[in-house]
From TrEMBL:
Spans of repeat ANK: 38-70, 133-165
SUPFAM superfamilies: Ankyrin repeat (SSF48403)
Cross-referenced PANTHER family: ANKYRIN REPEAT DOMAIN-CONTAINING PROTEIN 22 (PTHR47276)
Encoding gene (name): ankrd22
Keywords for the protein's UniProt record, in alphabetical order: ANK repeat, Membrane, Transmembrane, Transmembrane helix
The protein, known as: Ankyrin repeat domain 22
Keyword match Kinase: no
Transmembrane parts of this sequence: 86-106
Positions in coiled-coil regions: none
Length: 190
């Protein structure tokens, strides 16, 4: 079980339930309503759930990609922080020996994740938005040692010099985690 939202539109977006989304939009027509508990909007909830099709739909309904929840996070923060689900890992492990099918599934999931981040950036997501801890999406990408995501963010002009509340830049995080490939890229960008 995941997150339980008080706003029906947020819950429907998180659960990828298009029938409920249509119903919620007929009742309210406000795609940017915020949940009382978390402050999430439907698009943030969809990003937390990793629901790419739902996110694309919400963007057609003018969902605001720069709304912030109570943690100060935007949908881009959650898209970058999204990890494989337990079921994804299970499928990858089980299918890895069978013609590298697990690897193909893993690469497919990564590409979906990257296309989501690009979609949000193209929709106007602020690549340098900071949350309540002072972290940008680039801080999270470096903390997760995700070179592909960090590269996408840097191509979108992510500022690698932003210092979070722990007094760390994305470069500091990559250095601390000994992620030397990204350290080199970040040094070139600075």
């Amino acid at each position: 079980m995941g997150i339980l939202y008080s706003e029906p539109i947020c819950h429907a977006a998180y659960e990828n339930d298009f029938e409920e989304i249509y119903k919620a939009l007929r009742e309210s027509n406000d795609v940017n309503v915020q949940d009382a508990k978390y402050g999430d909007t439907a698009i943030i909830a969809a990003c937390r759930g990793g629901n790419n099709e739902m996110i694309e739909f919400l963007l057609t309904k003018n969902a605001d990609v720069n709304f912030r929840n109570k943690k100060g996070r935007t949908c881009l923060h959650y898209a970058v922080r999204k990890k494989f689900s337990f079921l994804d890992y299970l499928l990858i492990v089980i299918l890895m020996p069978i013609l590298l099918l697990g690897y193909i599934i893993m690469e497919s999931k990564k590409k979906q994740h990257e296309s989501l981040i690009r979609l949000l950036l193209e929709a106007g997501a602020n690549v340098n938005a900071v949350d309540n801890k002072g972290n940008t999406a680039l801080h999270y990408a470096c903390g997760m040692k995700n070179l592909r995501t960090a590269s996408i963010l840097l191509r979108a002009n992510a500022d690698s010099s932003i210092v979070n509340l722990n007094k760390e830049t994305p470069l500091d995080i990559a250095t601390r985690l000994k992620f030397f490939k990204l350290v080199g890229i970040l040094r070139k960008k600075s």
